[in-house]
Specification:
CATH architecture: Up-down Bundle
Structural class: mainly alpha
Shape: elongated
Helix content: over 70%
Largest sheet: none
Oligomer: single chain
Order of helices and strands: HHHHHH
Number of domains: 1
Radius of gyration: 25 Å
Amino acid sequence: GPSCVHAPVQAKDSDDDDDVTVTVDRDGFMDEFFEQVEEIRGFIDKISENVEEVKRKHSAILASPNPDEKTKEELEELMSDIKKTANKVRSKLKSIEQSIEQEEGLNRSSADLRIRKTQHSTLSRKFVEVMSEYNATQSDYRERCKGRIQRQLEITGRTTTSEELEDMLESGNPAIFASGIIMDSSISKQALSEIETRHSEIIKLENSIRELHDMFMDMAMLVESQVSIEGPSALHPPAHSGT
């Protein structure tokens, strides 16, 4: 069938001249491949910069009991940007992987193929690293938001264990979550509004963490033994110490 390799590589007899023409044909293909590599590398760097920016937004939002909407919107934009770029990277890595597999299926091993495999593996590892960092950032932020809720509850004389708080958070709806708290304590409006703010941040995070996890499982297959990513523990990784 038609191969996705742009330069048709004909079955060659042992004539050396043919080899030369094939090499020339393949040069264009490798140039194109390296352009792709540069593009992917650029996307990964962009995600990395965005993750740093996300950390700054997290700190800004946590620093204020009622953070301004603009900062929260900027955070959401960054998150959606990371997701879009990550999906681009993932599909580009996938298509490189498929073209490599196709050539391996035809038993073509060449220096070019080895170069492409090495590049693919390096990029995949870089990608998983930056996405792991993002995942750790999200989880860390979730813990810190949770800590703020816990503190506000303590001020009102209500102590909760981490597990109890998790159960309350499971309810998904900030209003329900908050009304449960109003019912049994004389809580100030200000404390309540902070609790609602932190809780809605957590809800936004949950979706993002879930999506990341799905993407991870996919990438983990691709990187397999290079970086081990466990299942659901990616949702609640051990406390992340900033590197």
